[in-house]
Automatic annotation (TrEMBL), chain A:
Compartments, record wording: Golgi apparatus, trans-Golgi network
Gene name in the database record: EIPR1
Repeat (WD) residue spans along the chain: 202-238
Pfam family, one: WD40
Protein name (record): EARP and GARP complex-interacting protein 1
Example of a GO cellular component annotation carried by this entry: Golgi apparatus
Keywords: Repeat, WD repeat
From TrEMBL, chain B:
Composition-biased stretches (Low complexity): 24-43
Alphabetized InterPro entries for the sequence: Cullin_repeat-like_dom_sf (IPR016159), Vps51 (IPR014812)
Predominant subcellular localization, coarse grouping: Golgi
GO cellular component: cytosol; EARP complex; GARP complex; membrane; nucleolus
Family: Belongs to the VPS51 family.
Subunit organization: Component of the Golgi-associated retrograde protein (GARP) complex. Component of the endosome-associated retrograde protein (EARP) complex.
Name of the protein in its database record: Vacuolar protein sorting-associated protein 51 homolog
One GO term (biological process): brain morphogenesis
Keyword terms, alphabetized: Coiled coil, Endosome, Golgi apparatus, Lipid transport, Protein transport, Transport
Function comment: Involved in retrograde transport from early and late endosomes to the late Golgi. The GARP complex is required for the maintenance of protein retrieval from endosomes to the TGN, acid hydrolase sorting, lysosome function, endosomal cholesterol traffic and autophagy. Acts as component of the EARP complex that is involved in endocytic recycling.
The organism's taxonomic lineage, starting at the top: Eukaryota, Metazoa, Chordata, Craniata, Vertebrata
Top-level lineage group: Eukaryota
Subcellular location: Golgi apparatus, trans-Golgi network; Recycling endosome
Length: 365, 806
């Protein structure tokens, strides 16, 4: 989402009255990490997502404590210009001075209480936002220069009990008309045009569903994770059975993320303080490995021999990262470098890792 | 002398003695005059002879007759018989002897030997005289006897001559009589021949009337015999008109006879033996065998089909079928018996037909047999659902036994093989049926257990305990298995005719019973049990946790003892003796153990989830910011402790205590109160400021560096402590995660403090390593403090007081 370089991460659940956003720049070539701190004065941040169109704009969900009540609100913010440009002449200075975010607009939640999650339309011009508030799914239109958010349409979950959305993702396929949400143990798909439910996976997980992600290359594929320690892969055309189930974690899985370009790489973070990178070749868009183009006539024979030696890949766990000492609450891939990913744990430790070199070459060659 | 010796009635030893002396003397005399007598002779004379001497005389006799002395007398080392200097030897040479004496002996010794010899010679002379005197009478009487015999023989010779002349005269007379009677004898012989011929002719002339009479009387056999006897003759002499007439008559009658026989044959009502007789007669009459054979089979077919129809009628859907034993009996006696008779008769009658005839019969038997088998199979299929194995086995036994006779008779028709095949198929189906039965029994047991688990709390009294239920289930399954084994065992009983077939000796035992039935059942049992782990209703509503626990224990028991017991039992009952690979006990045990482990792990998860849900609801639904100052422990925590205790009791019913980590000296109750005071307070309260959050993080990080990572959902071991540890770990970790998602006010934090201390007080005794509870609760309070904008912890003493009160 900061396409020039480095990676961006959602802010951790930092227990502060006033949130901070840490912009971490990772210079791949020199292996240098730069940190910029942005103050988020409205309250502690629970969820953050960046606009796909404007790299200086981001949306957050934050807790506002007032009169011994906690209310979760959502707002759209703009970062200071100098950070946006990405030029860091003096990294030492920038890390010491905290700058402030500029508020663009609030997503009005007077009608609906706690905002759990804010999602941007992935491919659009940064004008559409979905937010999940308790049992409502709200679609906002941002006015010119994001100065105002107008509620375009909404839908709500009917049913008994206190239903609460926990998480949601906007599908990059189907011209961005689909959104998937999770509440309790159920996964639901929504059509944003009519705001009606498309599909529903009841009891997708034995316990609460924590997160979900769409396969960036296969339009019907969806990954979800939850408190039953499992990661499940779904084909939304057939929701009775998961396509695949992983059971590698020993506690709740908080995050699941597909690699943006190589969708066999799946990253999961769990409160057993582990990050697991799995290779789900069999259900990826490249089940037989990278296809070799025919126009390399000169190297054809070499390729042939290589192809013969290549065995069909098996689904497996590539690596388990145990650097964290406490529960891992967020993992994500770099938007610039597909081989880079970061994870963040409760104790505030951010770990940046690379996909193992051998596997990288295996996928590329 | 020889006749005398032969005629002497008893040649006793004393009588023979003189001979020896005489022999010896003769030998000595033959050697020529010798100057000295024998040195070995004793001077006492013959009256006082010693046994030695007697033996010596004996030896000399032997010597004379060419026997070796050593072998008869056993004298150890006699003098060399060839020595020429031996006075008593056969090869005695007086010259050599004398030379030797002269050369070797001095004069005095020579003189001595001379006198000695003279004395010996004298003694011998007197001996001889005595002998002659003694035997004189005997010599004389012998001479008289011989003379008398000579006279008698001469008289006898005359009489023999007379006899010879008489015989010659008799021969002469006899020859003359024969010559006279020769002529008459020939005439008598001729007359006898004519007589026989005339009788034959008479038989021929009477033949037509006899035949007619026989046919009228129905004595067909007799008629055919007559016809057979006359046939050849008539054939030979048919050029004579009179014979021709007889032959024609006969043929007419025979044709009529054949007609009647055929008639009888076609009517067919008279049963197989009579039919066979008819056919035999017809064959004797020279009817074409081919045609008869066809007809015979056609008749047989009619009869057998009748049998089959009646069998089918028994089988029919509307009337209640008779029991299977009766059915096979009926089939065996009716159809198979009939088939046997037909086959036997056919083979007897048409043996001359050769392989083509045999082939025809085989085809016939095959066709009808297959229809019979189809009926039997239909009947047996009706029996599949039934439970009575012994009846079925007996029926099969009869079926099989019955078919052995035609099987032996008609090897080509393959009836016995087909029968064996059917029996095998039925046996296989029975095995399948029993396997189903066992599975159903297992499921039934499970249903019972579920009911027992769901029911009892009504009247307040405890229902049957888990241990009791477990024992019930185990014994009921075991008895079912044993019953099945016993039922299946009937198939291999010695007295059952098919039990020695290779299938029943080998494959049935190993693949069928051991692998298919027993191993299959144990596997399916494991699978059924495992399916409880995979059931979609993971929320725990589907299966009562107690059932999981019970099944887990059951599988574990199977692993430790029952499997090997059952398999040993099976192997003993069914002497498995073929080379098919069988599943080893260890594999099954491993499977059972794996199942037990999964069930127990699932149990832990389910129970952990129940408690987790309770804790989670309690954390999520409460407004922690505006809570009041804690006065007592929240009810939820008491509930958690209660539930944990209940689980502890439940698990304790089935599993052993297990090993606890050795408690360190400071892990007494007192230290727990210390935990919530000094350490905690020192850790977060004073140092915490919003501007320096990293310090607390650093502290907790450093502490974590020294504590081991806790695997929350780790596999459990088969003991109570491990199970409880698992459940508590899951629960507390949930509490921790939930606390981290909330924001606490000051009193909210204090409430958490109180709750955690309470849990600490009561949960440590359930787990293997109390440090674990310690750590997790520590973490909960620390997290709550971090999530609190105004963290003012409660005085530890107050916390203690509240906990002890509540």
């Amino acid at each position: 989402m900061w396409p020039h370089r480095g990676i961006s991460l959602q802010a951790p659940i930092l227990p502060e009255k006033e949130g901070e956003i840490h912009i971490i720049d990772f210079d791949d070539e020199n292996n240098i990490i730069n940190k910029n701190v942005l103050l988020h004065q409205a309250g502690e941040i629970w969820h953050i997502s960046a606009s796909p169109a404007d790299r200086g704009v981001l949306a957050t969900c934050y807790n506002r404590t007032s009169d011994s009540k906690v209310l979760t609100c959502a707002a759209v913010w703009r970062m200071p210009k100098e950070l946006e440009s990405g030029s860091h002449e003096s990294p030492d200075d920038s890390s010491s001075t905290a700058q402030t975010l500029e508020l663009l607009c609030h997503l009005d939640n007077t009608a609906h209480s706690n905002m759990a999650c804010v999602v941007w339309e992935p491919m659009g011009d940064g004008k559409k936002i979905i937010s999940l508030a308790d049992n409502h799914i709200l679609l906002w239109d941002l006015q010119e220069s994001s100065s105002q958010a107008v509620l375009a349409s909404s839908a709500s979950l009917g049913g008994k009990g206190q239903l609460k959305f926990t998480s949601g993702r906007w599908s990059p396929h189907h011209n961005c008309t689909q959104v998937a949400t999770a509440n309790d143990t159920t996964l639901r798909g929504w059509d944003t045009r009519s705001m009606s439910q498309i599909y529903c996976i009841e009891n997708a997980h034995g316990q609460l569903v924590r997160d979900l992600d769409f396969n960036p290359n296969k339009q019907y594929y969806l990954a979800s994770c939850g408190d039953d320690c499992k990661v499940k892969f779904w084909d939304t055309r057939n929701v009775t059975e998961p396509v695949k189930t992983l059971e590698e974690h020993s506690h709740w899985v908080w995050n699941v993320r597909y690699n943006h370009s190589h969708d066999q790489l799946v990253l999961t973070g769990s409160s057993d303080s582990r990050v697991i990178l799995s290779n789900m070749v069999s259900i990826s868009s490249e089940p037989f490995g990278h296809l070799v183009d025919d126009d390399d006539i000169s190297d054809q024979e070499d390729h042939r021999s290589e192809e013969k030696s290549k065995e069909p890949l098996q689904d497996n766990v590539i690596a388990t990262y145990e650097e964290h000492e406490d529960s891992v609450y967020a993992v994500d891939w770099s938007s610039a470098d597909p081989w880079l990913f970061a994870s963040l744990s409760y104790d505030g430790r951010l770990v940046i890792n690379r996909v193992p070199r051998a596997l990288k070459y295996h996928i590329l060659l | 002398m020889a006749p005398g010796s032969a005629s002497s009635p008893s040649p006793s030893f004393p009588a023979s003695r003189p001979w020896a002396a005489v022999g010896a003397m003769a030998a000595a005399a033959a050697a020529g005059p010798s100057p000295g007598s024998r040195p070995g002779d004793s001077p006492e004379g013959p009256e006082g002879e010693a046994p030695e001497r007697r033996r010596k005389a004996h030896g000399m006799l032997k010597l004379y007759y060419g026997l070796s002395e050593g072998e008869a007398a056993g004298r150890p080392a006699g003098p060399d018989p060839l020595d020429p200097t031996d006075l008593n030897g056969a090869h005695f040479d007086p010259e050599v002897y004398l030379d030797k004496l002269r050369r070797e002996c001095p004069l005095a010794q020579l003189m001595d030997s001379e006198t000695d010899m003279v004395r010996q010679i004298r003694a011998l002379d007197s001996d001889m005289q005595t002998l002659v005197y003694e035997n004189y009478n005997k010599f004389i009487s012998a001479t008289d006897t011989i003379r008398k015999m000579k006279n008698d023989f001469r008289k006898m010779e005359d009489e023999m001559d007379r006899l010879a002349t008489n015989m010659a005269v008799i021969t002469d007379f006899s020859a003359r009589i024969s010559a006279t009677l020769q002529d008459r004898h020939e005439r008598i012989t001729k007359l006898a021949g004519v007589h026989a011929l005339l009788r034959k002719l008479q038989f021929l002339f009477e033949l037509p009337s006899r035949l007619t009479k026989c046919v009228e009387l129905g004595a067909y056999g007799q008629a055919v015999r007559y016809q057979g006897r006359a046939q050849a003759v008539l054939q030979q002499y048919q050029h004579l008109p009179s014979f021709r007439a007889i032959q024609d008559d006969c043929q007419v009658i025979t044709a009529r006879l054949a007609q009647q026989l055929r008639q009888r044959f076609r009517e067919g009502g008279s049963g197989a033996p009579e039919q066979a007789e008819c056919v035999e007669l017809l064959l004797a009459l020279g009817e074409p065998a081919e045609e008869l054979c066809e007809e015979f089979l056609a008749h047989a077919r009619g009869r057998l089909e009748e049998e089959l129809r009646s069998l089918e009628a028994e089988l029919g859907p509307s009337p209640p079928a008779p029991d299977v034993l009766e059915f096979t009996d009926h089939g065996g006696s009716g159809f198979v018996g009939g088939l046997c008779q037909v086959a036997a008769a056919y083979q007897e009658l048409f043996a001359a037909q050769g392989p083509a005839g045999a082939e025809r019969l085989a085809a016939f038997a095959r066709e009808l047999g297959s229809r019979y088998f189809a009926l039997v199979e239909r009947r047996l299929a009706q029996e599949q659902g039934g439970g009575d194995n012994s009846l079925l086995v007996r029926a099969l036994d009869r079926f099989h036994r019955r078919l052995r006779a035609p099987g032996a008779l008609l090897a080509a028709a393959g009836l016995a093989e087909a029968a064996t095949e059917i029996v095998e198929r039925v046996a296989r189906e029975r095995l399948g049926h029993h396997l189903q039965g066992l599975r159903a029994a297992f499921l039934g047991c499970l249903t019972d257990v579920r009911q027992a688990l769901a029911a009892p709390r009504v009247a307040g009294k405890e229902g049957p305990g888990l241990a009791e239920l477990l024992a019930n289930v185990a014994s009921s399954i075991l008895s079912h298995i044993k019953a099945s084994l016993a039922a299946v065992h009937l198939f291999t009983a010695k007295e059952v005719s098919f039990s020695n077939k290779p299938y029943f000796r080998g494959e049935f035992c190993s693949q069928g019973v051991r692998e298919g039935l027993i191993v299959g059942f144990i596997r399916s049992m494991c699978q059924t049990a495992q399916s409880f782990c995979d059931s979609p209703g993971e929320k725990g509503g589907a299966t009562p946790p107690a059932l999981l626990l019970l099944l887990s224990r059951l599988c574990l028991d199977y692993e430790t003892a029952t499997i090997s017991y059952i398999l040993t039992l099976t192997d003993e009952q069914f002497l498995v003796q073929d080379q098919f690979p069988v599943t080893p006990v260890s594999t099954l045990c491993a499977e059972a153990r794996e199942t037990a482990r999964r069930l127990l792990t699932h149990y832990v998860k389910v129970q952990g989830l129940v408690i987790s849900q309770m804790l989670r609801k309690s954390v999520e639904t409460r407004d922690w910011l505006s809570t009041l100052e804690p006065r007592n422990v929240r009810a939820v925590m008491k509930r958690v402790v209660e539930d944990t205790t209940a689980i502890d009791v439940q698990v304790g019913l089935l599993y052993e205590e297990g090993v606890r980590k050795a408690q360190s000296s400071d892990s007494s109750k007192r230290t727990f109160s210390v935990y919530s005071s000094s350490r905690q307070q020192g850790r977060y309260a004073p140092s915490y400021t919003p501007s320096a959050p990293m310090d607390t993080n650093l502290l907790s990080n450093i502490q974590k560096l020294f504590s081991e990572r806790i695997d929350v959902f780790s596999p459990v071991e088969f003991n109570k402590v491990s199970v409880l540890t698992g459940i508590i770990k899951i629960s507390l970790k949930t509490l921790l995660e939930c606390v981290r998602l909330r924001t606490f006010g000051r009193f909210g934090l204090q409430q958490v403090q109180v709750d955690c201390h309470f849990l600490q007080l009561y949960l440590w005794r359930f787990v293997a390593d109390e440090e674990l509870v310690h750590l997790l609760l520590d973490e909960v309070v620390a997290s709550a403090a971090l999530r609190c904008p105004d963290p003012v912890p409660m005085e530890p003493s107050v916390v203690e007081v509240i906990c002890e009160r509540g």
